[in-house]
Design a protein that fits this description.
By secondary structure, this protein is mainly α. The protein has 14 helices and no strands.
């Protein structure tokens, strides 16, 4: 019960604060977009750079942890694409459904949640999952969508688009620059480090409030028959597969297993929603997945953290 009140509820209360602020028009129609831009282009890159610039290489070299998390989200993504394609779904929609079922909200919820539940020493591990989610998993989904919509010459065009997108992604560039800085430069001076700390400390609260504003603005009719299977994949199947991989395949420590499973159990992030809008696909399922998994994960994540804390 302490975990629920002291760790989980304060995190999701920020989501609720954003929802209330938008519903009562304390924040305007563009608030979610503008706050999201701050998080993606300033706050989160500062946090990721700082984590990597100050991290110990032993913390970053976690092949078993990386493989266990990747296996969990990768199997869910691949299975969903195959099943949806077999059901005659368009490849673009099949890819989006797969992303909905495997794309953990690491950036907006994972960092503050794991910092509160497992301490700041967990953040380099969370950064690894963020890179896997927002670059590799997201990039594969963009690749499939591009192929399905590009027609002739689709593969080369898709590869070019994905490559350019990844090179311009601040959530990828920031940790890479942090690693290079840690390797070749002295410790970050006090002044610049304070600047990074101020930006980084604002990233998680703004991300959570922005998520609440986004949910308040979402207008859609929930298609329960299709949505329920995606929610089950995200909140049950992905963390279960990750636990099996971490515990029985890679023999991770209890701490690493707990972090991998909790991050896998995070609700669906807003990345798939932005991708659906970008390519003009039906975004109602994605918006519904974000909303339903965010609400349900309050209880499931509290249960998992309590279980692993025993």
């Amino acid at each position: 019960m302490d975990v629920l009140f002291n760790v989980v509820i304060p995190i999701f209360a920020l989501v609720g604060a954003g929802w209330l602020a938008r519903r009562f028009n304390f924040l305007g129609a563009t608030a979610a977009s503008e706050m999201n831009h701050f998080v993606v282009y300033l706050g989160m890159p500062a946090l990721l750079f700082q984590i990597m610039a100050e991290a110990d290489w032993k913390q970053l070299h976690q092949p078993g942890f990386t493989a266990a998390f990747s296996l969990g989200c990768g199997l869910i993504f691949a299975a969903t694409v195959l099943i949806r394609a077999w059901q005659s779904s368009h490849l673009a929609d099949a890819s989006l459904d797969a992303l909905n079922g495997s794309y953990a909200n690491v950036g907006f919820i994972g960092f503050p949640l794991c910092a509160a539940a497992f301490g700041p020493e967990s953040l380099p591990l969370v950064t690894i999952t963020a890179i896997i989610t927002v670059t590799i998993l997201f990039g594969i989904s963009v690749f499939f969508v591009e192929i399905s919509l590009s027609g002739s010459g689709g593969v080369l065009k898709a590869l070019k688009r994905v490559s350019v997108s990844m090179l311009k992604n601040p959530l990828l560039l920031a940790p890479l620059l942090g690693v290079l800085y840690a390797e070749f430069m002295p410790p970050v001076p006090a002044g610049p480090n304070r600047f990074l700390s101020l930006l980084a400390s604002a990233a998680s609260p703004c991300a959570l409030v922005s998520l609440g504003v986004f949910i308040a603005d979402a207008k859609f009719a929930i298609q329960w028959s299709r949505l329920s299977s995606i929610v089950a994949l995200k909140l049950i199947a992905q963390p279960s597969l990750t636990w099996v991989a971490a515990r029985f395949v890679f023999n991770l420590s209890p701490q690493l297993t707990a972090i991998a499973v909790v991050v896998s159990a995070l609700p669906t992030g807003t990345g798939p929603y932005m991708l659906a809008n970008l390519y003009g696909r039906d975004a109602s399922i994605t918006a519904g997945t974000v909303l339903v998994t965010t609400v349900l994960s309050m209880l499931s994540i509290a249960a998992l953290i309590t279980l692993f804390a025993q």
